[in-house]
Amino acid sequence: MSASATRLDLYRSLARQLRADSIRCSTAAGSGHPTSSLSAADLMGVLLAGHLRYDFRRPDNLANDHLIFSKGHASPLVYAMFRAAGAIDDAELLTFRKFGSRLEGHPTPILPWIDVATGSLGQGLPIAVGVALAGQRLLKAPYQVWVVVGDSETAEGSIWEGFDLAGHEGLTNCTAIIDVNRLGQRGPTELEWNTDAYAARVQAFGWDAIVVDGHDHAQIDDAYARARSASRPTAIIARTLKGKGVSFLEDKPGWHGKTLDADQAKQALAEIGAEPSRVFEVPSPPEWRPAPLPQPKPVELKRYVEPLATRKAYGEALAALGAARADVVVLDAEVSNSTHAEDFKKTAADRFFEMYIAEQRMVAVAVGMQVVGFVPFASTFAAFLTRAYDFIRMAAISRANIRLSGSHAGVSIGEDGPSQMALEDLAMMRAVHGSTVLYPCDANQAAKLVVAMADVPGISYIRTTREKTAILYGADDDFPIGGSRVVRGGGSDDRVTVVAAGITVHEGIKAADELAKSGVKVRLIDAYSVKPLDARGIADAVRDTGGRLVIAEDHWPEGGLGDAVVSGLVALGVNGIVLRHLAVRDMPTSGKPAELLEAAGIAARDIAAAVRALIA
Amino acid sequence: MSASATRLDLYRSLARQLRADSIRCSTAAGSGHPTSSLSAADLMGVLLAGHLRYDFRRPDNLANDHLIFSKGHASPLVYAMFRAAGAIDDAELLTFRKFGSRLEGHPTPILPWIDVATGSLGQGLPIAVGVALAGQRLLKAPYQVWVVVGDSETAEGSIWEGFDLAGHEGLTNCTAIIDVNRLGQRGPTELEWNTDAYAARVQAFGWDAIVVDGHDHAQIDDAYARARSASRPTAIIARTLKGKGVSFLEDKPGWHGKTLDADQAKQALAEIGAEPSRVFEVPSPPEWRPAPLPQPKPVELKRYVEPLATRKAYGEALAALGAARADVVVLDAEVSNSTHAEDFKKTAADRFFEMYIAEQRMVAVAVGMQVVGFVPFASTFAAFLTRAYDFIRMAAISRANIRLSGSHAGVSIGEDGPSQMALEDLAMMRAVHGSTVLYPCDANQAAKLVVAMADVPGISYIRTTREKTAILYGADDDFPIGGSRVVRGGGSDDRVTVVAAGITVHEGIKAADELAKSGVKVRLIDAYSVKPLDARGIADAVRDTGGRLVIAEDHWPEGGLGDAVVSGLVALGVNGIVLRHLAVRDMPTSGKPAELLEAAGIAARDIAAAVRALIA
What we know:
homodimer; 22 helices; 19 strands; elongated
């Protein structure tokens, strides 16, 4: 199978235009990555004119192929492709990187043809694998996922998490195009042009490898055709020249992330033989629609009376969601019997995905699956979500809607020791743009919050507890996001406000009940919605109790409930606060949960002592 | 080369004891991972009695081999080895996982024979590679680094970052022992017993692979001998049975992380043929000392007068440290021409290590190098340190002393857009146990803080700015950690306190100077030490200015300077605070730095407006 002369002419013409427009827009911007765009221009010319089946007028068509630039810094090339497809015009192309433009320095989904934000290297490939996994296993969609990978970013372990998963799942609809241009930001890559090494690696991870000259349109054309019909995921390993097409840029160090000045651009465009930019025809996707999802049913949650761990309530709520809604998917990082995400398999086994111990790809696949409309919940130990923080951060830039659950929070996990204890997760998750951070203290509350998360936009997070905890609330109670609950006190004679969440609510109850015996009334607030926080509700309590405030949290002192409450109060102008902030201040060890809560100074006795100190 | 019968008897006897003690201590604890210990007991018996050259009486002997359990949950086996080596006694072994014991659920370096904390999977291998890299390239030490890797954790991308680096660097002193016991926490691993697949993967990453029966002492013995004399790093891929040695545990699902009750333990010990535990002889390290380091010289910093980016001052301060001290090492994640870490190569090229785009292994190698006494500085864009948060968190549990630098902080980077902007790094780094968080605003200050970091214990972090900023301070000024500086105002007629750091100090100056023209005096504080914060200094200012406070930061509102200042003030009992907190509240785009500072509402005009609102 070889391309016709007409077809090769078309590719040549389009590649020339992509090169010219990559230079034109980056020179107009005065910043950007033209040379990283030029190396892949032939690869993208052949893809856009010959193989990408995409209706640019209907980016929401689920039959469309997906194109993800894992090497997001080659954004001039991305936008040049959109220009060539007629999706944007020349005037918009030249707004690249300017304030107010949709054409940001790195691609983001404020453009309707972009699935996800890239620019933090190593993320596009595992996200693309998530899009492919949803297409092959859930939607049975005809789309192919094409992902453009930089050679430098193959140093990121997350790339291998992606290769591994696609190989394991046999995702024949996933094609990686590795642009082996040999030069990283500050010098040669590790493997330079050792395309055999790349091939050996991807083959060892379960992929087919096709090595091509990345500037030979016939070879590329043939490779794409083979990739689409392959019986395994395929990596096209393209040997390229960075800056290809312009003599003074080709394979030259020192040009990464540098733009051409006006004179250099003029010379470059002359070498390229640039003609006025025009619109090229892009292959159409097939006529196809996914099978309509069954109508959602009411979510039937269990009604809890006996003590239960909130992580178990999380799992059972997932199961209830799985029975009620066909769009919910669950991802596990090989701890589903600890997070209890495994319960979802009881109602929707076909929508449960094992990511093995690879938290980055778990979040990446969640992001990929929401691209095509699914509602992902991803869970692991809360401590191990730190592994995926860059992916979570980028998911917010992707305007992704994903739900995360972290179990085994805080010192209350007990014997496993500090490596398994999340003590920074609230800080980490609060500092995600537009995030929602929830921390239930009982099973009924946890279940209600899990159901609410399914409809929360953006990045939402629920922190669950390892230990069984008493049931405090009725199964019909409501727990609005942004709310709080008064668990003890509430009268005008409350002396001190105690703000707690999760495990410390139970310590607070013990303290309040003990203090009540000696006539000291406290108002105990369950701040289950850490972000958004019910600052007004807490402020009312603090004012009622003369400013006396105890905050108790199973978290480091920084960035968690304490910071949230104090900042919330001060923002509201609450004054006269006299605070005792109980948090984990020393490195924990192993021990029984009760021993560790006491060692950290966040147990009932510590809360009671803090209250007594405030009223002394 | 095959082991003598006597030697095989010794191995058999030791392996039997390691099995028995793994069961005994975990049954006494009532929690832990006996089955994951049993699978590797033969591997460790042969290692301890035959190949690990280690003086347990002198764990600080730099000639000692290193043994790192990347699968840290097999801690019963680790402690059983220490018992067998005579490092701990039987009574201490039975304190496993109890409150107050050194034998925590997962290993930590509160035990002198443990290099680093493990338990978050996927970290031990890349850290071990760091220890090996320091041994081979810096110390020219005779030690071998043995790292025990679980099969499940090979799903973590960070494992492949480690394999890749060791292969690239040709670390012949690094041996990975992969315990392929086929069963993960909740079921079979991805590759189960496909040892050929493991071999193909590690070979593709530049390692030799030796596949062995992990319960055949002669095969293991031979493999270790080959590994120590190999010309490449070697992975010993050991096919094992989880729970090996106990009939009702062997290769049985449902036993991960479960302990035997007293009756089960009795039966198991009978099957194993346990004898009273005794001390075995461990091979000695060779007589060897590293060449003494040259005496440190005074650090000669540049003296800055002209505007300069603090990232450039970071690089030049590293160069000065490199010239003065032989223990400082610098690690780059392929952006050293942006972070300016490359300047270190001018004075100490042999102590500069290119980690390529792999932030997890950059931090891991830093942790590994400090194990053998080096003083690592690791730098990348601040946004990309989020990729390594789990490694940073674990480094704190490892009691590691490492220094991190994040450049390109905040929206002030400009055109590159949000994927490259760190807006959560202060929150992330504050919430690390014992961390120090610094954010200089001028080059002289940055340089001084970099030098100070070299002697700061724990995890220290410096946030640097992309743009050139004016010089505010003299080259002889001191900037103690925990301090702050008054940049404008200071008199009794200051009306408002403005707290800023880094780039916003410069916006604050413009605002203060503009306000001064209309007679409004503000006290502008440079809070360069975000943690520990000079809360007392800021409190004095806030009290002097009637509680009126503006905080301006190039960061999300959560967890950064704002939270730090407000929590610090309230903890000191400062009251009557009237706050305007200026932070980045909407998702940024591309644009010029000044445009983006204004769009975020953290520019000079916004600070001035906030001040005016407070005094209106």
